[in-house]
Structure formats: C-alpha cells, structure tokens
Amino acid sequence: MTRSRPDPVARVKGTDTLAVIAVSGREKGREALRRAFPRHRGTLAFVRSRAECLTTLRTRFTDAVVVDVGQTSDLQWEVAALAREFPSIPFFAFGPHRPLDAAATARLLGTMEFADLLMEGVDDGLHRELVVAAGFSRRFAEAIAPLATTVGLTSPFHLKVWSQILSRGGRPVRTSDLATAVNLTREHLSRRFSAGGAPNLKRIIDFARLMAAAELAKNVGYDLPDIARVLGFASPSHLSVASQRVFGIRAMSLARLRPPDLVSRFLAHGTRSRAGGGVAPGGHL
Fold it and tell me: SS3 sequence, 216-272?
C-alpha cells in the first residue's frame, strides 16, 4: 500500500478510531500509552510476549503496533522483528529520547523498518495523531478513495457513502449505519445509491473489503484464515466466495494482483449484482 498525494476524496472521515497493540515493560510507559490512546477513541491491547503479539495480530483488526523501548529487553526486539512480517501494519518505537539510544533507534527505523519514533515527553499530545496518520485504516482509505470515479461513484452523495465505507478499513459495514450517516432509511439508501446504473451498494461494500483483504494478503505474517478473522468474514470460505463473486478469482490469488488489476477485474465482472448473488451480463440488473 503506497502513500498517495492528498486528494479531496481521500480526506476520509471516521478513520481516527484506532486499534493499537502495545508492548511495554515499564508502568510509566504503559500509563503514557494509555493517555495517548484512550479507549473511548479505539482499542489498546497490551501484550506480554512475541507469541501473544502474533496471536493478537492474527485475530484482531490492528492499525498499528507500538513498542516501548524505554527499557529494552529481548521481548522488545522479538516483537520488533515482526514488523518485517507485517509491512501493512506500521510499527512505532516509543520511549524517552537518550543519546545512548541512537544506535537502537537507527536499527528500528532502518533494518527493522519501523514507521517512526514517538519520543516520550516530547509532544505527547501529537503521538496519537502521528499513529492515526500512518495507521492501516487511514492509509488504506487514502489509497483507495481516489478509485471512486473509476468504479462509477461520481456524485457528492456517492462520495459521502464511499467515505463512510472506507473508514472501516475493510471491516464489516452495516447498511443501517450508512443510512444513519446520510439521514436515509436503509431501503432509500440502497435505491438512491444504485440509481441511474450506478454500482449496487452491496457490491461496493464487498469491493472495498476485498481490496483491504488483498492488501493484507501481501503480508507474509498473514494467511487467508487470519485475513478472514481480522476483517470479520464468517470464514475463509466466505472470503473466497466473495472474492470469486466480485473479482472472479479465488482468494489465494489476491496477494499476487496489484490494485489496478483488481479494479479491472471488478469492472469486467460487473459492478451490479442480482438479488440472488449472480452477476448480470455487462454488470447490470
């Protein structure tokens, strides 16, 4: 997932609710992280081992991982090593700025490919904003948002709904929540969204979720059952059926295709679906 230039469509609202995993051996560090990532604005899960961090990554949706290096130990380095297995999930180092830590910081930001360093006691109030900006949900939304016009979403109404869909980062989206966001009933929302030959709402929701699945599939730390779990699919089979329905490919093929290839397959396979799940010729009902 590459970073794109800011775009009016890409300013997705609602992507500031974070799901963070943290490891810290210091009570002071844990207290600082709790202040930076309050639970009323997302989730913060502390882990105590590499295995626990790996299990959490593979079972819960995660925007970012924060590793407290204020008191270095084998645990910090073991968790830090996971950054290369999950390049779509940014890892951040957190701790006090000390000259003696320069070599360790260079190793984390360079060799271990950490996203950034959050310095304890320096601009503490900005730590959350930095993580939000680089977190999976925001980066995914900003990368996918400009595809709106390509897939047939052109009106301000379409873009408002599209923004709400992307704010979930590929997790399940309830049409009732979308309807509430745009002050419509569920039935009126669906009819208005697909009016004039525009894509079905359900089809667009599936498209966004599968684009997120394709991004996660490029991480060696995830397999298909993991992706199904973290994105809220009922099962790996459900993920595969959705991929076949929307892109015409099995889910195991998602990792090898670039976003433009997936968009082409989506358009060729049909942007509108029948009530029974089949695709009408030419993508129309």
Answer: HHCCCCCCHHHHHHHCCCCCHHHHHHHHHHHHCCCHHHHHHCCHHHHHHHHHHHCCC
CATH assignment at residue 275: 1.10.10.60
Answer yes or no: are the C-beta atoms of 201 and 190 closer than 8 Å.
Answer: yes
pLDDT in tens, 23-82: 998 999 999 999 999 988 899 999 999 999 999 999 999 999 999 988 778 888 899 999
Global pTM reads: 0.87
DSSP reduced 3-state for 93 = strand
The pLDDT tens digits of the residues spanning 113-145 come to: 898 888 887 766 789 999 999 999 999 999 999
Residue among 180, 170, 179, 178 at smallest CA distance from 138: 170
**In whole angstroms, what separates CA 284 from the centre of its chain?**
30
- Looking up tokens 């070599």 gives 103
Residues 208 and 165 in one domain: yes
| Locus of tokens 């779990």 | 229
Q: Does residue 225 share a domain with residue 192?
A: yes
* 32 and 100 share one domain: yes
Region for residue 200 given its phi and psi (left: phi exceeds 0; alpha: psi -120 to 50; beta: otherwise): beta
Do 181 and 198 touch, CB atoms closer than 8 A? no
